[in-house]
Design a protein that fits this description.
The protein is mainly beta. The chain is built from 6 helices and 40 strands.
Length: 677
Amino acid sequence: MVAVLSTALLLGVGSVGQASALDTVPGDPGNNAHTVEPLRVMTWNVCGEAGGAGPWASGYCPERNTRLPDGTNTLKKAAQISDVVTGENLDAVLLQEVCAGTRNSNGTRGASQLDQILGMLNRTDTSWSAVSAITPRPNGDSDCRGSLSGDVSVAILAKGGIDWKRETQLPAPAGVQQRGKVLCAGVAGWETHLCTTHLTNYDTSLPSGEAAAAYQAQIGAVSDQVDDFRQVVLGGDFNTRVRDSLQPLYRTLAECDQQGYYAGDTPNEMTKVTNQWLPTADGTLTQGTVQTSKIDYLFATAGFGGCDSLPELADSADYSAQPDCTTSNGAACVPNAPSDHAPLLGTVKGGPRLNWSLRNEQGHSGSAQGGVGWSTEHGGAAILDGTTGEIDAGGPVVDTTRSFTVSAWAKIDPDAGTSVVMAQDGSRISGMMLWFNQGDRTWRFGMPKADSNTWDMDQAISRTPAVPGRWTRLTGTFDALSGAITLYVDGVPVGSAVHPATWRATGAFTVGRDKVSGHANAFWKGSLQSVTTFDYAMTAAQVASAAGALTAPTRTGTAPGTETNGPGCHNGSYTAGDFGTVPTTTPELTAYVAHPDPSHDVWAEFSIWDNTDPQQPQPIYLGGPGSASGKVLGEGTVSVRPTLLAGHKYGWYVRTADGTSAPSPTAAVCHFTVASS
């Protein structure tokens, strides 16, 4: 079998049956491709508007109609949600019980909560988009009450263009009003799909056996929806404290808060405050029962590198200490948080949080300053002069209180002094640094014990000297739960230490220097490329694999704007109507491939087959004529444009090859339908 074909051979292939590979596109000149998204996601039942005029009433909703006192008619709850999204630097948000849309009789109420949240987020980043699905109350009504616009809904917001959605009604027993739905969405350029839901608690409306069966039917429906996606994040209000009730989700997905991620982090933190307030004879309130529980969950196929509940955002106000808060004056009751639920935030494992190829001036998103040049060596690299050259991200990238991984290819000059590959600045000293130490000529990865002028460092040191003039892959990991710091050279662990006391370095992430005693220090002298950071600590096996193995292609799909009515790439399922339709018989199929060594060429091998007529020859098949696209150097997006048959359904997948190593496993199977002519 020929593992790799040149572009010339591919373009020269003639007709195979009634289809042929007409065109391939190598490279990613815009440097826009990426791997599976390292998402920061939040799920939150924001209690957009619930029943009850005050905290004594069932379903009381904090801040349900409150406006900010700035004359803009801005909803306080929307502003609080927006503040969390921006403050936590989130990529996606899954909301329940939010007012969405514009449903009202006379059009005078103005923007809904979701409209206002989206508007506030887009003031600084116009890439945010949102979709929603109405979830009626048990009585069938859905319009948001009081002075609010829209309908009670579940919603998905994403820092990117949502280009597909599917909403599915959850099953309900006969005679029981159903309000729950599963809402799923796809974001342009993301492999990961987003789903949210709000399940019904039947404990008080059905006998226990029927309630359990009805709940399990809902969980089964949710599971069926998310099973369609190879990569998915699912979050929502599941209305249960019993983990076993959430099967089969726990068997097929990772749930973010099942472990601690750093010292002192408690698993299964509370997400719901249930506080009963009882009116006294004079109409004031006294506290009845108080219960905290976890009923909100966040799942992902890729697993999590961190998870946090924010209990301070769940209302715990002492209304008995508010003399004006009475059953006749509910407007005077002042909550101390925007919902009766706490948000749950998770960091989904995936590709790098930051990925600077440094192939050329466009190979980074930072600010290059001082003596920085560029070369084509080793696939393209930055050359720093050891005196003033640096590349600054303009803000923090690595959270030094949480687990992380940093990696780069480095070549130190023979005459270099102590030189820093990358660092995450604090106020007085960098909170993380990876460097070459001139004294004993070793590689080092360290974290200071405090943000001070004192050099007091926990550091992992290589056991053998660095080799000047040789390209070396350096990786540092920090496991915030164990405190372990580990340094890897060319994928092999070479030193370790323990960093028990953490502090957050909130300055700029920099390539080419660190900070000591408040000043720039130890400028890099040599060449650097492929600087990456991850929001979790890679295991030794993951580091070794990343340093030497070909991985399956990512970000597979049809070219943007060519597919409608579905995401196309599912987990091997073939359900009619569940995948997209392309409007052309020559669709562009794309995949992102990467080689562990940026100086090596890498190919993508495609296989495409006809699902409508199995007798049709495969237009392109692995290892055969037309199977390889144009090569790219190191990493990038490659694509193939076959000629297919109108009205036919096709499946396809792709793998990575370099002509010398064994090809990678294949990516997930994708499906699409070619529109009828």
